[in-house]
Amino acid sequence: MGVHAQFHGLVIDASSQQPLAHVRVEIHETEAQVLTDVKGYFIFAELTPGTYHVHFFKDGYTPEERHVHIPAALDSIATLRIEMTAMHFNMHEVVVEDRSGKWEEKRSAQSVHVFSKDEIQNQNGISLAERLASTPGIRAISTGVGMAKPQIRAYSGYRNAVFEFGIKHEAQQWGSDHGLEIDASDVDRLEWIKGNANVLYGGDAEGGVFIIPTPTVPSKKITVQAGSFYRSNNQAVGEHLAVGFHAVNLFGRISASHTQFADSRLPASDFTYLRRVYPLVDGILQNTAGKQNHIALTLGKLTQTGRVQFNQSVYTQEAGMFKGIVGIPTTTDVQDDGSRTDINFPQVSIRHLKSVVNYASTWKTLWFEANVGYQDNWRKELIRPLREGFNPLPPDSLAHSLHLKSWQANATWRKNEEHGGKRVGGIAMERLNHQRGGYDFLLPNYTGNQGSLFFQSNVNGRHSDQLIVTYGMRLEYADWQSQAYDYPVYVAVDSIGYLMPRSTNLTRHFFGWSANYGMRYQRKQHVFRWNLSRAWRAPSAAELFINGIHHGTFRHEVGDSQLKAENGFMLDLEWSVNREKSTWQVSPFMHYFQNYIYLEAQPVFSQLPAGGQVYAYTHDRVSISGVEANYSYWFNERNEVQVQAAAIYTYLWSSGLALPFTAPASGQLCWTHAWVKWKNKWTLKSSLTSVSTASQLRVDRNEKTTPGSQVWNASLVLHGQWRGYAVECFLGGYNLQNRTVYNHTSNYRRLNLPEPGRNLQIQINLKF
Amino acid sequence: MKTKNLILLLAVAASIASCLKKDDSEAPLISSFYLNGLTSLVDTVQSGDTLLVIWSLTDNESLKQAVLNVHPADDGHGHVSLPGDTAQVVNSGIWTYSKTFDCTGRYTLLSHTLYVPDTIQGFWHIEIQAVDEKGNAAEEYAVELVVQ
Questions:
Q1: Are residues A224 and A274 in the same domain?
Q2: In chain A, N or C terminus with fewer CB closer than 10 Å?
């Protein structure tokens, strides 16, 4: 018979010393939650002895957290008295813990930025990456509207890991024109670890990591969230519904969403493809309409020692690709086809399946978590069959079928120490299998295996509790095996001259390590952080094996099967100050890579029909440095001013040029005003934001420079309670002056296409 | 003393900045183009004709490669400027051609003879592209052929 323990306590207001009701008390390890009663009491009746980390949340109060140790004695009881301090102003949530390592931002050398559901929803854009892109340090590398991937500082693709349900999101991230197959409307919370996170999250987290936590256990028996939005520029309409339940020890959540959008409208009259100029009729970007669907299911059970849960999600997207971005367009292709919602050739069809089982449990003084997952990502690019050179007419429209399957398993052990220190150890494994198809060739069939061991410690300084030291290391192994593929080269109509080897049978093995050492020091209102890390990343399959015309980037891309693993040193610093009426934060960084892998323009032309110039993956020494800054000032309870800025400098040592897609310096000034508070049930907030972007004149070879811009955005947000429902209405206007704005990190920049013009967004969300 | 320190700091920063090299990023130039001795952007030729193409390339450092290609233009696409009204017909017959030329030095004069198939009619483009040894790509040059 197991030893069971009880944990109860009292929560009071620090200034009035009166009990606080409805405080949400959450045990981090088990995700068990209770609310305090009217007398401020709470109780967890059935717990296993051990050390737990407990959070206390209440609107209008600074969140609190405590470590609670319940000794392994029969019927042991732990008690706690918490005083919570009222906040004068609505600050962003400051208590953060990432999932895999169960790390605490307050006790880590690395800072973590949390995006709440509101912060994600109330942003311009459809894709998740676009909605994060207003944060200093994050940009979106986009291909029109609806397809985008996040760029952290200068890092994108395989240098940013995205973890969802405890496993790494695996998709076709090698293409700068490929988006992230995650539905923004179903993300309740997102955590961003700034800076290198190799040690805890592997080589792909070189530039940072985004973590979408597993759905939390609903605090009530039934919870419902529903919402809908409309965007004027591309007539986008989206709906989502999520229902959660919690009955005894069982809990679950099912969510579904649907988004569809029409062709975008730009303030432009023509565009350029491979230096050929085409008209853009009425500014409509033909064939950029699309639709996406997402369904997710979570079922779980809370046990006496932890929880087990199963997550299943399916994401699908069908979207037209603007004729200029894929394939060679004709003038007829870019004429008005009479419909803004139809999806013609070229188009992309994506399906992403994800199945994950999470298990978490305490065992003596250890906390154990394991995640096992399977993902199936199938990307199909359909292009109208076109005879290129002497090649025969393709039999069907399937140009590329890229089918990636991945199996992952990871396990993490954590030991809490009495004075707040933590030690984490873990193991992670992954297998990848890619099968190609279609009449064109880009990537061969390949398989890959990855495995790693890691540990990280988080200890208090010897002489001061204000000093936290973080250090860790990861050993990593990866291998890739590619299959040979010979491509027929036609020298006359229906006459094959020779077979061109586009891929060979090859196996590569990589073994390396990453490590970090950093500190967090707090003195009064000042917090200083620094983290020095050694980054390591095995080349991706695309970097090794790709060999074909990548229509999305207008060039013949060639991998280098002899590439070495990428490694470098990264120093991330942060200084933040929290005063009663203001906060500010400065985050400079300096990174140096000995052999950074990137696509370099070659002095040769492709031998493939309409192949253009060859770009090959190569190594170079690279420096990446920059700074992000954020300042907020509250004049009073109703008025807040926020200033944000970010700048990046990239330097390729062999050429002195910049890395491609280096974002220009940018800044924004935002004034937020709370207009009314009616019976403490309704609040109306407005904001006016000026977004300025500097011109980008430091560019990679053959990359266009981009002029600077300034636009005004405005929004109104109404929050309130209606018949027991939490209601939020949002009205936003973007680029109110309808200015022509070029985005340096958009694939459309190469076509001289600006960003979509003025856009209005309306959104309504209900919750109970 | 503070001023001296500031001057020293600026001098060090200037020294570091001067050490940062900047590779050649200047694109080569297609400096002249002649089709059968003419420089017009639109030429009318007969199927079965022989065309002599001569063009020159210049670069600030060293040229590396040029490519001449012939592709159909009946889709109405243009080069440099928007297409005119003429290019909206359907070609008859297939004519596609591509040849790569290796180059060296800062200046080169290239020539090539094209044979217009005697079975075609419609609109084609002759397009010249070039890169230097660093991979900088020249603005292309193209002429439209009306094959009768």
A1: yes
A2: N
